[in-house]
Amino acid sequence: MDLRQLRYFTAVAETCHFGQASERLQVSQSTISQAIRALEDELGATLLERTTRLVTVTTAGAFLYSEAEQIFRRVDEAAVAVKRLAAGKSGFLRLGMTGIATYAYLPRIARLLREELHGVVLSVRGDMLTPDQCDALRSGALGLGILRPPVVGDGIETLPFVKERLLLAMPEAHPLADKPDLTLIDLRDEAWVAYDGDHSPLNDAASHACLQAGFTPRRAHFGLTTSVLLGLVAAGLGVTLVPEGARALPRQGVRFREVDGVGELEQVLAFRKDARDPVVDAAVSLLQARWAEEPVEA
């Protein structure tokens, strides 16, 4: 039994007329009749009673017609689902994010996906460093990452996403917290807090800015995440440079100041070069388009 035979049978069952079924299907009456005879032989049951003037559906035929309706409905639903999958409108998106992106951008990302790709199920791993995201992308544990370049290792493609100014984070009670025209050189004798570990674009940016100002920062305390760094700042243990998205982190006792000459950092959309996924492609296109239309206010 195949779908062709079922379609022929249901057309005759609905019209009770081989001629009308032939016109509907654009198939000859003899082809329809032969297909239904073969179906009856396969099932060992008479589905249609035929006379020269009338076609009626038997009890077995009525049962098969009811089942066929459900089969065709499921086939249609499956076709729609496959088309949505192929278009990236349904499926799973495993998203990795830096700590700042998790706080500052995830609420908006989740809202956009719900509104535009509501058939996509989102799974998030937040507060991931760039090397960890790159490893997870290569292994397939992530489909899309939001990370700070440069990527670590091969096989990862990136596209622009967000550029963030760097802000000076200092204790709220610091003597220079309210100083007009504050510059980095004013902080040359301060203790600095920094990210622990290798491959930190933020550490590199802070070092570059301080060297441009004429001094090398004295790093005294370290943390793995931006929230830890802000905790160290709030405790009065030092100052640091953080992306403007850090404003989204709840942290009392920290004053954010804009200073000249510190530059900016970017976060990019990252995915595997050799494993294109329609859901990832759809999410990337959506995020790039909507972020360009509605710039993020950190």
Task: Describe this structure as you would to a colleague.
The chain has 298 residues and is α/β, with parallel strands linked by helices. It contains ten helices and eleven strands. The chain has helices spanning 3-15, 18-25, 29-43, 59-86, 99-104, 106-116, 130-139, 201-213, 226-234, 278-293; strands at residues 48-50, 55-57, 90-97, 119-125, 144-147, 156-171, 191-195, 218-223, 240-243, 254-257, 264-272. Strands 3, 4, 5, 6, 9, 10 and 11 form a seven-stranded mixed beta sheet that branches. A hairpin with a 4-residue loop joins strand 1 (48-50) and strand 2. The protein starts with a helix and ends in a 5-residue tail after the last helix. The model has no long low-confidence stretch (mean pLDDT 89).
Summarize this entry quickly.
With 298 residues, this protein is α/β, with parallel strands linked by helices.
List keywords for this structure.
Arc Repressor Mutant, subunit A; D-Maltodextrin-Binding Protein, domain 2; seven-stranded mixed β-sheet; two-stranded antiparallel sheet; rod-shaped
CATH second-level architecture of the largest domain: 3-Layer(aba) Sandwich
| Shape estimate | rod-shaped
Biggest β-sheet description: 7 strands, mixed
Q: Unreliable runs, pLDDT <50, ≥5 residues?
A: none
**Beta-strand percent range:** 15-25%
Number of strands: 11
- The third-level CATH topology of the largest domain is D-Maltodextrin-Binding Protein, domain 2
Count structural domains. Answer: 3
Total of helices: 10
CATH C-level class of the largest domain: Alpha Beta
Q: Helicity level, as a percent range?
A: 40-55%
